[in-house]
Design brief:
heterodimer, A: mainly alpha, two-stranded antiparallel ribbon, B: mainly alpha, 11 helices
């Protein structure tokens, strides 16, 4: 059979397409849920209208986004059985549990409370309404935790034994699966990156409105919230990413060697800035490197040895038998760089923004701006950016609002392709994981169907987002400002139109 | 009773919850074409399920996740075997979810009409397909010695399973009509009740046929009891609907669904997916299940989570207990 269209290849492409697509919505959902909940809390506590306007505005964008996240998540729950039935048979005993936990605990939380939040504006007192969004937020994070525990088990299987009698992996220690270092570090990294994503989104859109001097009050608040989140999340993403790298150097040396295109063991090992190589021959033709940095990333000192691709490949051949244990090196190498590059660019833009828009610190009193005017971008105490540079900064923040999405996607592509040829590292090969009974035609059909459907939905979604982003926050009505005091709504307004209806 | 039996019951329970809850919201989707006279009424119908359809759908995800964890072999054979029908269900659920959330996000009539059409078809098709799938599950399919489905998609379209599909479609639509009469006010409420009578009678004919066929082929004493409960509840639902006792009618149409699902699972047990090729190749609660350790953990999780879920989902229904009429629908957005 033509290799390019082998069911395994197609199933992998389908998994890649549907998962990367799903993960465009996930991090935004996680972070926006918390940010919207924070804004609504500010409204409940202060009663300031700008917070309610902001809650409604970001809440709407959040809803457009989560709708896609929810529906594309359904596919994830079922495609293991559809395309990866041998995988499911082999790992179900271990892998199924966190998935079921996710559904029973997290999904119910998320979906039930989101319904209450959407339709509950005139049915719930504001404190309870706000509480609902916090529940949604907890749901999204729990969901991330369980699914990442499952994924971490694929990266670094623990707490199981191989049962030869029925040829499958069986769980022996669920606690270990939930608390192994891979899980904890990955959860930390994914959540911080999620907040980086939502914050960049918020900053970008606020910048868009501030540049046009529209909706200033709401957007100033949003910008500030976004920038602070962006900077904190950026720092934490870098720290967690560094920890994750160190864990991976230990657990999957091949993945990290591939990420660096480090062919042979070096001591100390350099960090590669640019490399172009020959995969068949196993060496680089061009390499620009920072000496010793890779040793530091792997072991926290500048001299320790780091094994190369060829070394790990030989070691794995001895351990697992003849074969090629190298992942796709260019994808790992560039995926790793794009992940860091896109993510850290957003962080840098956020850091610059936080400095430029500071309220009082090291800023001449004349340059301080009020609630009703766009912030002045002040480089130093007395020097502000000119109109052109100011516009340039707002535009930059706006056009790069999707950078973390690219970083996330490349991060996943890197970590998943970097594990190849394994589905479960060291235990189950991807080629042994596909559904033997599913035909090439069936996988091809589903791949084409999902890809086409997702493409169409992407266009619809982006157009809707653009429409609502452009429109900006809406004016508040009396009903908005006077939420009910009783659960189920105050009885006097029984015959009023609903505050929200489809 | 061993843990894998407990999990068989729990999975039956999750499917029951799914069909009870999403049953009426599929029904509402179908009724947007059958019952609503104008676009305002359509919106009334859609809004009766607005706050809850998403939570209802999670019962399916839980059933899927629980099957994966508790019976990996069942999960693997079922979803790789029923590949194309499941693909169609997934596409429907994707489009349906987006349709609900995006329909009101633009005011252009064409935009809204397109999503309304989508809601109708993506409610109707899964309502049929789940019946076809369960019909095949009970009837048995071609499973070989390696627990792989070796039949074709056409094998799934046999008369028994197709009848099952018609039963779920009409039963869910009936259940939806009863729900509509319970949740609306005004003219549409009366018409929903009238339509429910017609739908209930059609359902009765089809359901009695399908359940009797099941009983004759696969049944035993316990399944007969479940069948009788289901049929009696259906008659009671029709009666209560006629008398205008909408709450009772809804409870009874719910019991009809629950008892019918119970009957199907009773005829399955101790198999989870029987093979028509060789009885020794049947997937059973023993040879398809996870290890006792995994089942124990899962039991703890479900034991704590499931009652909580029912509690806060129940609370949601209470929060949105008021009826909706055309006067409650805001003009524009």
């Amino acid at each position: 059979m033509e290799l390019a269209l082998a069911p395994e290849t197609l199933a992998r492409w389908q998994f890649g397409i549907t998962t990367v697509y799903h993960f465009l919505f996930v991090p935004l959902t996680i972070s926006l849920a918390a940010l919207v909940a924070g804004l609504e809390t500010a409204w409940v506590r202060t009663g300031k209208e700008k917070y309610l306007k902001a809650t409604k505005f970001w809440g709407k964008l959040f809803l457009i986004n989560i709708a896609m996240g929810v529906v594309t998540g359904i596919v994830q729950e079922f495609q293991f059985g559809m395309n990866w039935s041998d995988y499911s048979r082999f790992v179900g005993d271990v892998f199924g549990a966190p998935l079921a936990f996710e559904a029973l605990i997290a999904f119910f939380f998320e979906s039930t409370f989101i319904g209450l939040w959407i339709f509950g504006w005139d049915k719930l007192p504001k404190k309870i309404h706000c509480f609902c969004m916090w529940m949604v937020s907890i749901g999204t994070m729990l969901s991330a935790y369980f699914i990442l525990a499952a994924n971490s088990w694929m990266q670094h299987p623990v707490g199981y034994r191989y049962n030869a009698a029925n040829g499958r992996a069986e769980l022996t220690d669920f606690w270990k699966v939930l608390t192994q270092d891979t899980t904890l570090v990955v959860v930390f990294h994914t959540l911080t990156a999620a907040f980086l994503t939502g914050a960049a989104f918020m900053v970008g859109i606020s910048a868009f409105h501030l540049m046009r001097k529209k909706h200033i009050k709401v957007m100033r608040t949003s910008l500030r919230l976004g920038l602070i989140t962006l900077v904190i999340a950026g720092v934490l993403t870098a720290i967690s990413g560094d920890s994750l790298g160190k864990v991976m150097f230990k657990q999957q040396p091949m993945k990290m060697a591939a990420a660096e295109a480090l062919w042979d063991k070096e001591e100390p090992a350099p960090f590669s800035v640019f490399a172009y190589g020959d995969v068949d021959q196993g060496h680089n033709k061009v390499a620009i490197e920072v000496p010793g940095l890779l040793s530091f990333l792997a072991h926290n000192d500048f001299s320790s040895p780091v094994p190369g691709i060829n070394d790990v490949n030989k070691a794995e051949q001895q351990k697992f038998g003849p074969g090629d244990y190298r992942p796709n090196i260019p994808v790992a190498y560039w995926g790793f760089r794009w992940m860091i590059g896109f993510g850290m660019s957003s962080f840098a833009i956020g850091l610059a923004g936080l400095w430029l828009t500071r309220k009082k610190f090291w800023l001449a009193p004349g340059l301080r701006t009020g609630d009703e005017e766009p912030p002045v971008l002040a480089l130093t105490k007395h020097k502000v950016l000119g109109a052109r540079l100011t516009k340039w900064y707002w535009s930059l923040a706006f056009v790069t609002l999707g950078f973390p999405l690219l970083a996330n996607s490349w991060g996943w592509i890197f970590t998943e392709t970097g594990r190849q040829p394994w589905a479960v590292y060291g235990v189950l090969r991807t080629s042994d994981a596909v559904s033997p009974g599913v035909s090439q035609g069936e996988v091809l059909t589903s791949m084409i169907v999902f890809t086409t459907l997702y493409a169409i939905l992407a266009v619809i979604e982006v157009k809707l987002l653009v429409k609502y982003i452009k429109a900006g926050p809406q004016e508040l009505s009396d009903a908005d400002l006077n939420p009910p005091t009783k659960i189920g709504g105050d009885s006097t307004d029984a015959d009023r139109p609903m505050a929200f209806s489809y | 009773m061993q843990l894998h039996d407990v999990w068989f019951v729990l999975i039956a329970f999750l499917w029951t919850g799914y069909f009870f809850l999403e049953g009426f919201d599929f029904g509402i989707g179908v009724l947007t074409k059958l019952l609503a006279r104008d676009r305002r009424e359509k919106r009334v119908l859609i809004n009766t399920i607005g706050p809850v359809w998403d939570g209802n759908e999670v019962w399916l995800l839980s059933a899927g996740g629980a099957t994966f964890a508790a019976f990996p072999e069942w999960y693997a054979t079922l979803f790789s075997g029923f590949y194309l029908p499941l693909l169609l269900v997934l596409v429907c659920l994707i489009v349906r979810g987006v349709a609900f959330e995006y329909r009101a996000k633009r005011t252009e009539e064409r935009w809204q009409r397109n999503w309304e059409t989508a809601i109708f078809w993506t409610s109707l098709l899964p309502a049929v397909l789940w019946g076809v799938a369960f019909g095949n599950l009970v009837r048995g399919v071609k499973i070989d010695a390696h627990k792989e489905y070796v039949g074709s998609v056409l094998d799934l379209l046999n008369p028994y399973a197709l009848l099952g599909g018609l039963v779920t479609l009409t039963l869910f639509t009936f259940h939806g009509a009863v729900f509509a009469s319970l949740k609306t006010v005004g003219d549409i409420r009366e018409r929903a009740r009238k339509l429910a009578t017609v739908l209930g009678l059609i359902t009765a004919v089809l359901a009695v046929g399908f359940l009797s066929w099941t009983q004759v082929e696969k049944g035993d004493g316990s399944s007969l009891i479940a069948m009788i409960v289901s049929v009696v509840a259906l008659a009671a639902a029709l009666g209560a609907n006629k008398l205008g006792r909408e709450g009772w009618a809804f409870a009874c149409s719910g019991i009809t669904i629950a008892a019918a699902v119970a009957m199907l699972f009773l005829t399955l047990f101790p198999n989870v997916m029987p093979s028509t090729l060789n009885a020794s190749w049947n997937l059973t609660v023993t040879n398809a299940s996870s290890s006792p350790y995994t089942l124990k953990i899962m039991t703890w999780c479900a034991g704590i989570a499931a009652p909580l879920v029912m509690l806060y989902q129940g609370w949601t229904y209470w929060v949105f207990r008021k009826r909706i009429g055309t006067q409650h629908i805001a003009e524009s957005h």
